[in-house]
Structure to design on (174 residues):
């Protein structure tokens, strides 16, 4: 049975010990490229990209050669937290927010003080938050999830809506 730990840029693959094995050879399950040889029943694969699918097969090894490959174990690395969150425009009753994608599957933006005011899961890197009050500070929280729907922590940014525009200006001449 193959298992793996869930981290952003590495995976720790592990498997059950096999009697008579002196080492285990890990191969990429997609292209059969050799990844590593381990005398342990686990291996930490490092330097991986965020939100990317990886897969391995393991083969036992001893003085008689290599055994049959295990079934493939696959997983996605975690998505990175959205970065560069900012507001791109504001009005008296709305703010348009944006952030930078790092290859995440989807994003979820919400008002920190009113989580019911949210974007739902979206693929866009912008969200127009509407129904706001003039000259009021709002804080956006935006998180992401990877292809396996594992969510990231949220990043935050704050901005004010515009002030109301003066109206009914008149000139009184004395």
């Amino acid at each position: 049975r193959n298992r793996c730990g869930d981290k952003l840029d590495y995976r720790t693959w592990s498997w059950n010990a096999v009697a008579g094995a002196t080492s285990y050879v890990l191969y990429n399950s997609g292209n059969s490229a050799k990844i590593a040889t381990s005398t342990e029943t686990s291996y930490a694969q490092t330097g991986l990209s965020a939100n990317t699918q990886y897969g391995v097969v393991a083969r036992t090894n001893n003085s008689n050669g290599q055994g049959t490959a295990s079934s493939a174990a696959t997983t996605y690395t975690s998505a990175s937290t959205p970065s560069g969150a900012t507001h791109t425009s504001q009005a008296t009753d709305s703010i348009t927010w944006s952030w930078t994608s790092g290859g995440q599957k989807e994003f979820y933006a919400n008002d920190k003080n009113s989580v019911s005011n949210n974007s739902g899961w979206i693929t866009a890197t912008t969200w127009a938050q509407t129904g706001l009050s003039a000259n009021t500070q709002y804080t956006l929280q935006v998180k992401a999830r990877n292809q396996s729907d594992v969510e990231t922590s949220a990043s935050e940014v704050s901005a004010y809506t515009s002030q109301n525009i003066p109206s009914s200006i008149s000139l009184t001449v004395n």
Q: What stands out?
A: The chain is about 0% helix and 50% strand. The longest strand covers residues 53-62. The radius of gyration is 26 Å.
